[in-house]
Design goal:
This protein is α+β, with helices and mostly antiparallel strands. The chain has 4 helices and 5 strands. It has 2 domains: 67 residues, Double Stranded RNA Binding Domain, CATH 3.30.160; 48 residues. A 3-stranded antiparallel β-sheet has the order 1-2-3, with helices on one face. Strands 4-5 form a two-stranded antiparallel ribbon. A hairpin with a 3-residue loop joins strand 1 and strand 2. The longest helix is centred in the N-terminal third of the chain and has 16 residues. The radius of gyration is 24 Å and the shape is elongated.
Length: 149
């Protein structure tokens, strides 16, 4: 199977890959098929054949993989906030329930379906008014300093 092979990274992990020449530039590139032994030789051959057929049709496997990542359905702010809640707050914060409630009340109703890569500081909500006082959004809090004597 020309172009397909296995590479070892410092003896820790071996990866199946497929080497090809990009249609537009003629540059030699490598597409990852998957880890060994997680993917068997027979499966690696099948995937390499599929990549080879795509290259023969003028496709660039690496670019196709990047495009699929960009268009993935899990790129919403909802998916990102769910991941934040499960991987961080539930394990490390006592205020996990409060964080989830705040996200559900204030952030997710407007942002849940937005692509998180399009969010910028300028698109953040304006500071909230609580009891007539404006609560500023600051980067960090610092403790009051004691006067030096």
């Amino acid at each position: 199977m020309p172009g397909a092979g296995i590479s070892s990274h410092g003896g820790r992990q071996s990866i199946w890959s497929y080497r090809y020449r990009a249609a537009g530039s003629g540059k030699l590139s490598r597409a990852t098929i998957g880890p060994y032994p997680g993917i068997s030789l027979a499966d690696a051959r099948l995937k390499a054949d599929a990549l080879r057929a795509g290259v023969a049709n003028g496709e660039n496997p690496s670019e196709a993989k990047r495009r699929a990542k960009r268009e993935a359905p899990g790129r919403t702010f909802q998916a990102l906030s769910d991941r934040y809640l499960t991987e961080y707050t539930r394990r490390k914060k006592k205020s996990a329930d409060q964080d989830e409630r705040n996200l559900n009340l204030h952030v997710l109703p407007k942002w849940k379906d937005r692509d998180y890569t399009t969010l910028r500081r300028a698109t953040a909500p304006a500071p909230r008014r609580i009891g007539g006082a404006v609560i500023p959004m600051r980067r960090g809090l610092s403790a009051p300093r004691r006067p030096q004597t």
